[in-house]
Design goal:
Blueprint (H helix, E strand, L loop, with lengths): L1 H13 L2 H40 L8
Length: 64
């Protein structure tokens, strides 16, 4: 059983699909980083907008 697994791992590393899988993993990681940075920027801008609106509301308008 162990030798079958080792043979499969060896074949995977020797084949051309191995580097392709690594390239896809790197691209996926970069896409995730870009998405997280974008979401954080959008959240910061939305928070600033909500704070600006909240400051313009009368004091008694705040819901409890």
């Amino acid at each position: 059983m162990k030798s079958v697994l080792m043979n499969r791992v060896r074949n995977f590393l020797k084949s051309e699909d191995g580097p392709t899988a690594v390239e896809y993993a790197v691209m996926l990681a970069l896409i995730i980083v870009v998405c997280l940075v974008s979401i954080q920027a959008i959240g910061t801008n939305a928070n600033a907008t909500f704070q600006s609106v909240a400051e313009k509301l009368p004091t008694g308008a705040v819901a409890s």
